[in-house]
Automatic annotation (TrEMBL):
Domain Amidohydrolase-related: 29-348
An example Gene Ontology molecular-function term: metal ion binding
Protein name: 6-methylsalicylate decarboxylase
Source organism of this protein record: Clonostachys solani
Span of the signal peptide: 1-18
PANTHER family: 2-AMINO-3-CARBOXYLMUCONATE-6-SEMIALDEHYDE DECARBOXYLASE, AMIDOHYDROLASE-RELATED DOMAIN-CONTAINING PROTEIN
Pfam families: Amidohydro_2 (PF04909)
InterPro entries in alphabetical order: ACMSD (IPR032465), Amidohydro-rel (IPR006680), Metal_Hydrolase (IPR032466)
Length: 349
């Protein structure tokens, strides 16, 4: 997520880069963009998420506005997902979560059915409700033609990699599913009872904590050992991995202490290269992306707009910045095409 403050800052990019197009086809596939159906918006407000993750408001969204930003930002196809806080809104209320999840998934499925060239979707799951999530993933993948699922970094304090979620991840793995990992605010809890974890609460969650929660969740996938049995799952991690990559050597260093001596730098590298993609939503340029490029090459990066949490002018501004930066990071035009669309095409097949 990037927000209004960034609009001013970023609008300059639209003016800077009028000449530097190196590829004639700038079209891109967006694996990180959000939809906000009216019923979901109403539920967010009703259950206390009118200012989600400390943000000032829930942004406006409509099918028309989404198609319009796609046109402006050269996005040929968008894979839509529900953003933070996901669809399990009240700890312990699985019924509400199941209803809301079904509702947003059917909304997205209808969009995909009507406009299959423009839209796909990552289906939501009512995690940490395991039984509800198993039912919903089967329905979404078998009946609704979802392209995969979206999971938040934690579900009321249950982090990805926690053994209580194993049945869901085992089933996703059995289906060779694509799992899009999206950040949410950190939380201390066991899925039913929770207490907020909001250090430096004066800053909205996306500013700092989203990157840390991404690092926390992906680290837990490795440290817990859960990842070892998920060899057929494809993960797409938001925001170039957030703060994950600087931690990798440290995870390895501490692996024996957390009873996971099998975790080595080589095993992490191999898993990431084989099973992980990283989207470029947010601010990977000019600097963040270089840490990630110590672990993966152009074949593992995909485009993400984060619309509408990143507002229109920032989506186009960041898109222009990407057009400008990409040839500097990847001089090879083939690599540029991979990042903009070919990797996404391959992974959606
Ligand atoms: C899983 O969740 C339980 C309950 O909150 C917690 O005690 C445990 O440490 C967690 N384990 C992992 C690996 O996340
Ligand atoms: C979209 O494509 C047009 C035509 O190639 C180009 O002028 C413009 O800069 C592109 N914008 C973005 C955000 O990629």
């Amino acid at each position: 997520m990037l927000f209004s403050l960034a609009v001013l800052l970023l609008s300059q990019f639209t003016r800077v880069n009028c000449t530097g197009d190196t590829s004639d086809d700038l079209s891109r596939i967006d694996l990180h963009s959000h939809f906000i159906p009216p019923s979901y918006r109403a539920a967010l407000v009703k259950y206390g998420y009118g200012q989600p993750d400390g943000m000032p408001y829930i942004p406006a969204w409509s099918e028309e506005s989404h198609l319009s930003i796609m046109k402006d930002a050269n996005i040929s196809k968008s894979i839509l997902s529900v953003s933070s806080p996901g669809t399990h809104l009240v700890p312990g209320d699985d019924e509400l979560a199941r209803t809301l999840t079904r509702d947003v998934n059917e909304f997205a499925a209808d969009l995909k059915k009507r406009l299959p060239d423009q839209f796909g979707f990552w289906a939501s799951l009512p995690l940490p409700d395991v039984e509800g999530s198993l039912a919903e993933l089967a329905y979404a993948l078998d009946e609704l033609d979802a392209d995969g699922v979206v999971v938040m970094t934690n579900a009321h304090g249950v982090y990805l990699g926690n053994a209580t979620l194993d049945p869901v991840f085992e089933e996703l793995n059995r289906r060779n599913a694509r799992v899009f990992i999206h950040p949410t605010s950190p939380c201390i809890g066991d899925g039913k009872t929770t207490q907020p974890a909001s250090p430096l609460a004066l800053y909205p969650g996306p500013v700092i904590e989203f990157f840390f929660d991404t690092a926390r969740a992906v680290s837990n996938l490795f440290l817990s050992g859960a990842i070892q049995s998920l060899t057929s799952t494809t993960f797409i991690v938001s925001h170039a991995g957030g703060a994950f990559t600087p931690l990798i050597d440290r995870l390895v260093e501490f692996a024996p202490l957390v009873r996971n001596p099998d975790l080595t730098a080589e095993s992490i590298r191999a898993t990431i290269k084989k099973q992980f993609y990283f989207d470029l939503a947010g601010t990977p340029f000019p600097d963040q992306v270089y840490g990630l490029l110590r672990y993966v090459d152009a074949s593992r990066l995909v485009y993400g707009s984060d619309y509408p949490f990143t507002p229109d002018s920032s989506v186009t501004g960041l898109g222009e910045e990407l057009n400008h930066e990409l040839p500097q990071v990847f001089p090879d035009q083939g690599d540029q095409k991979k990042v903009l669309r070919e990797n996404a095409e391959a992974l959606l097949k």
